[in-house]
Structures are given as structure tokens and as C-alpha cells.
Amino acid sequence: MEELKLYTYIAVFGSFALYFAIAWWARAGSTSDFYVAGGGVTPIQNGMAIGADWMSAASFISMAGLIAFLGYGGSVFLMGWTGGYVLLAMLLAPYMRKHGKFTVPEFIADRYYSKTARVVAVLCLILASLTYIIGQMKGVGVAFSRFLEVDYDNGLYIGMGVVWVYAVLGGMKGITYTQIAQYCVLIFAYTIPAVFISLQLTGNPIPQLGLGSTLADGSGVYLLDKLDMVVTDLGFKEYTTDNMGGTLNMFAYTMSLMIGTAGLPHVIMRFFTVPSVKAARQSAGYALIFIALLYTVAPAVGAMARLNLMNTIEPVAGQNLEYAERPQWFKDWEKTGLLQFEDKNNDGKIQYTADTATNEMVKVDRDIMVLANPAIANLPNWVIALVAAGGIAAALSTAAGLLLAISSSVSHDLMKGVLTPDISEKNELLAGRVVMTISIMVAGYLGLNPPGFAAGTVALAFGLAASSIFPALMMGIFSKKMSGKAAVWGMCSGIGVTMLYVFQHKGIMFIQGTSFLGDMGENWFLGISPNAFGAVGALVNFAVAFIVLKTSEEAPKEIQDMVDNFRTPHGKVAAAHDH
Amino acid sequence: MENNSSYWQENLRLIFICLAIWFVVSFGFGLLLVEPLNAIRLGGYKLGFWFAQQGSIYTFLALIFWYTKKMNELDKKYNVEEE
């Protein structure tokens, strides 16, 4: 067996063994363990777990690749996926923790004194979480198929099996402690290659500083200036100013990701696991530290990967690489079909330009950049193996968190809350595990047969959460008078408008050919892309809710008192964890 | 009740200050004012680009910790800490 394959097996299966051991040690015995880890997780532990929960295959595998090709336009992901934590820490987390329930729909049910509101919240939650989970399952399949050389389907089955064992067995308690381990694996896997590459290119081992430094080749030219020069020479837009679809689109996209982050139930649920309101505020801060470690390195990874790719193909201007002399990583990725070359002018050399008539790199999939990066930079095999384990850790940890959010909303909100209120704790726990098993199978099925437009589904999940759950929670806390009826109207119209906009451009339920408006710039409302539309959906949600509130009754007195109660850390908790 | 509502007012004021800064560094410096700021350099970084890809994230972090600290002080001042 070749060395790389051996190292990869050790890294991936070694990390699996670790996750199983932790899950066995932290298995759940009660519904409180299963949903909120018994409410006893410290802020630093919780911060790490949120970090792993949060950073998905999209953050780990796709984001730096997107930045590498979008340049400045990629900033929407960096700001959008971190700025939401400011909103969480100040607008939602402390009050929802004080109220002290297990799930987001349960909070909505109490605040809006309505089973309808609870059911609508459950539906919004399942829609957003399922859309998100498809992307994770796909990430697991891709990582396995590339590194273990099993086929995509088998990779996915292995991934489903691993998540099933520790999520079903451990519930939130098992997931939390496993995620702490997964965070450590993924952050090492991400930063170690970045440090090596930054050192190679700029002589500065800190990637965040390396990105702003001069090149180590003695030319004294800044790395970003060099990159701007190289890409514009070939006809691409300037790296540091290329704004994706204009300022308004970037604005809406960033806003959509920020409020979507704050509205995603698998993240909010994390704040129910800490022991106090103070700890909930702190948790958001620690979570952002652990997330920022990856997110401030990502722009350096992106820019350096782009520069290395350009330099490999055209080491000196005008002297292009002979196709016959292409490096091993080039051949490996050609086999997957994610990298394709076509010798259009038959000179045996590779031309990579912005002009489709002369460009011979006919396919460079953005998702391969992070995984191929260590090989492009000639790093040792154990680093490449580590990246494989990191990518899988990122996808598994997010999938587990989402599965828990879905299963708790079905077993706790739909069954215990609405359909069968008399269910015993033991049966509720069993129901939670059965629902989770079914969810894994549904997610696996969707991963094997991804709907037409699977790549965009992660960003879409944010749009759905942004337009439905975030506004309902925020109004519930900051407007005492907000009524149940108004909130339900708001949620339905917010998510409705967003889905309508996405479907009209991307096809109904993403089925190709059913879209009634083409998916291109000139058909977009004010140039806002479907992925960025969640921000508009949220505005509609707020506006509709306030209009309905003006024309109908406001929330009753006891609800307004309840709001007063959860606005202060002191005082009685509404029947917290004594279910 | 009296006490609670001035506690809430002070909390709202803090949130307003924090979110104003949150908006200015990301949507302001990183997006709307990015072109004029790019004329200024921070080492190899153009300043607007730096805010969009680095600076805004550091500011978000500082904001959360500052808010947490101020809220802990506020909880003490109004005697509404958890028992």
C-alpha cells in the first residue's frame, strides 16, 4: 500500500475510534441528557462544540475555494458567517436560555401561546435543516471517495453509519463531547497546511499576516499585488476588488447569512446546554473565537492557493506548463473529473485564461482547492492525510447537530407537545432515537439522489432560517405586544416569499425545467441572487407581522409578564429542566 | 418593575451601540465604503479589503466580549444576577 493511503487510513479511522470512545463514555440516560446534555456544559466546551457544529463541509472544504476564485466577493461568507454571532449573543441567546426550554419551537409555542405557531416553527426548522444536511452528506461522500478510493455511494454509507452510532447513542451529550474532539481535528487539519504554505510563500508562519506580507522570492512585491497582477494579465477581474454581482447583492447576501446564522435552530439549541444566562453570553464569544481561528485563515488559504495554481501552470509569464509534465496532484484530480484539460490549440501546453475561447482548463471545481492545496504546495503526505480527516470531521459534526435539531423537534415538539402529550420520558427518548434514525436515512437518500441544484443548498438553508425563525424570535423578545397570530402570518409570508423567489429562478423543488424565470442577473429582483434573498424575506416577515399586529389584538397580560421575566437573568425559570 | 425597566433600557442602549459598530465595520467599511478605503494601505492589504476579510471578524469578537463584560456589571448594579 502506498504511503499516502496508509496515513489516510490511520488518520480517518483513528479519529473515528476516538469519536466512538467518547460517545460510549458520554451516552445519554435521560431526555435532558439527550436534548440539552443535562444543561451542564461549560462555556469554553460549548464554544468548541458550537465551532464544530457550525463549521460544516461548506466552511472547511468549499469556502476557501470560493474565496480563491471570487476574491473580494468571497468576503460575504467571511462576514456573514461570523457576524451572526454578534446578533445571537445580544438579541437571542441569553433570553432564550433564561426561558429554559429544550427546543426552538417550544420557545415559540410558549411565547406565542399557540400550537399553530409551534407547528409552523417545526416545519420551517425541518425545511432549513434538511436543505442544509444534504450538503453535509455530499461532503462526506466526496471526501471518502477521493481519499479512501471507495466509490461515492459506499463513502456515504460509511458516513451515515458513523453518525448513527454516536448521535443516536449519545444524543446532545454524546454529540457535544464528540464535537469538541472534532473541533480539534478540523482546526489542526486546516491551519497546519496554511502555516506551511504561508511560510513557503512569504516567510511568515502566521497566515493572517502572511497574506499582507511581501513574497519570499526576494522581489519585495506584496503577495496580494502579485496576485492582482497575475490574474489581470490573464484577463480575470482584479482579485482584491472583484465584487460579486454588485454592492447591493453583496449587502443582501451578507445580511442574509448573518441573520440566517442567528436563526439556525441547531446553533440556537446549543445555548440551552449551558448552566446560566451569563454562560450563554460567554458561549457566543468563545464560539466566535474558535470559529474566527478558521475564518481569518481562510482568506489566506484562498489567495495562496490561487497564486500557487497560477504559478504551477505558468511559472514565468509566457512559458506555460507542458501538459505531459503536469504534477501528480493534477493527474489525481483529473481522475475524479473535477479538473479537466482540453488542448484547444494543440501546442501540448496548458493555457489558463479568462477567455472561454482560449482557456484550456475547462473545469477547475472550486471544492477541490482546499483538499488539493497541500499537494499543490508539495507538503508531506501526513499533512494531506490530516486534511482528509479534518474534512470528514467537519461534515460529520454538522450533520449530527442538524439531525439532533430535527429529531428533537419531531419527538419533543410534534409528539410530546401536540400529538401525544401523555408520552412517558422513556418513550419520548425512544421516539427521539427512532426519528433520528429515520432522518439519517432520509438525509442519506437525498445525498445519493441530490435534488437538481445541490451545491447551492447550504446558502439556501440560511435564507430559509433568516426569513422565518430569526424574525419570529427577535420580535418575541423585543416586542412585548407581538401576538401569536401576527407571528404566524409573519413566518409564513417570510418563508413563502423566499421560497417563491428561489423556485421561480431555480425550479420548483429544484426540479430542472420547472423554473418560470431564468436564473440569471437580468431576471433577478434588483440584481439580488436567490441565495441572497433571505434578507428580503426577513424584511417581509417583520413588515407583515407588524401590520397584522396593528389590526388585531395584542399579546395577553400574562405573556407580557413572561417576556419581562426572561429579559432579566434573575428570578424564576419557567419550569426549566424538570420535565 | 421600575428597576427592571431601567435595566432593560440600559441593555437596549448597549445593544444599540454594539450593533452600530457591527454595522459600520462590516457593511460600512467592508462594503459601502470599500473603494475610498482601498486607497489606504495596511502593509500588503488594501484597507477596505482588510476590513472585509479580517478586520470585521476581529471587531465582532471584541464586541461580544465587551458586551458580556458590560452586561455582567449591569446585572450586579441592578441586583438581577442568577441565584
In whole angstroms, the N-to-C terminal distance of chain B is 19 Å
- By DSSP, the count of extended strands of chain B is 2
Question: CATH class of chain A, please?
Answer: Mainly Alpha
Radius of gyration of chain B: 17 Å
Largest sheet, spatial ordering of strands of chain A: 1-2
Mean pLDDT of chain A: 83
Number of strands of chain A: 2
The helix/strand order of chain B is HHEEH
Portion in beta strands of chain A: under 5%
Shape of chain B: elongated
State the domain count of chain B: 1
What is the overall pLDDT average of chain B?
A: 90
Q: Over all CA atoms, what is the radius of gyration of chain A?
A: 24 Å
**Uncertain segments of chain B:** none
User: What is the share of helical residues of chain A?
Assistant: 55-70%
Largest sheet of chain B: 2 strands, antiparallel
Number of domains of chain A: 1
Q: Tell me the β content of chain B.
A: under 5%
The helix tally of chain A amounts to: 22
Tell me the major beta sheet of chain A.
Answer: 2 strands, antiparallel
